[in-house]
Every structure is written in C-alpha cells, then in structure tokens.
Amino acid sequence: MDIGLPRLDGIAAIQRLKQEFPHIHGVILTSHQSALEAAAALPSGAAAYCIKGETVRS
C-alpha cells in the first residue's frame, strides 16, 4: 500500500482494512521518507513500512 493513493491515503486505507479484516497484514511500500509518516503508519495497523529503493540490511 502506498501512502500517496489518489482517493484514500494508504494509512487510512490500512486502518479501514484492519477494521473490516483484522487478520490481514498490510505493508506500506512508498517513496515517502518522512519520519512522521512512518510513525503514523505503524499504529494505523501496518505490519511494516518499506521505502522503495532501499535495500534490506541484516
């Protein structure tokens, strides 16, 4: 789910999905790098916040 969706932003969309289907695990995949957006995404019910183009670090 991207944050910058045209009609309903990804954070609000995940909130709605989690209300309807609590067993679903939504992931934010976005180019937005704002710490505020990441901080809002996880409490909304997102299971993860991934920035496009980043590599996985172990």
Q: Give the class from helix and strand content and strand pairing.
A: alpha+beta
Shape: globular
With helices defined by DSSP (H or I, 4 residues minimum), what is the helix count?
A: 2
Which band does the percent of strand residues land in?
Answer: 15-25%
Q: Biggest sheet, in brief?
A: 2 strands, parallel
What is the β-strand count? 2
What Rg do the Cα atoms give? 11 Å
Element-by-element helix/strand order: HEHE
Question: Kindly, what is the distance between the CA atoms of the first and last residues, rounded to a whole number of angstroms?
Answer: 24 Å
The strand line-up of the biggest sheet is 1-2
Helix content estimate: 25-40%
Q: Segments where pLDDT lies below 50 for 5+ residues?
A: none
Mean pLDDT reading: 85
How would you explain this protein's 3D organization?
The chain has 58 residues and is of the alpha+beta class. The chain has helices at 10-20, 35-41, and strands at residues 26-30, 46-51. Strands 1-2 form a two-stranded parallel sheet. α2 (35-41) links the parallel β1 (26-30) and β2. The model has no long low-confidence stretch (mean pLDDT 85).
Task: Considering the chains and any ligands shown, give keywords for the structure.
single chain, 58 residues, alpha+beta, two-stranded parallel ribbon, 2 strands, 31% helix
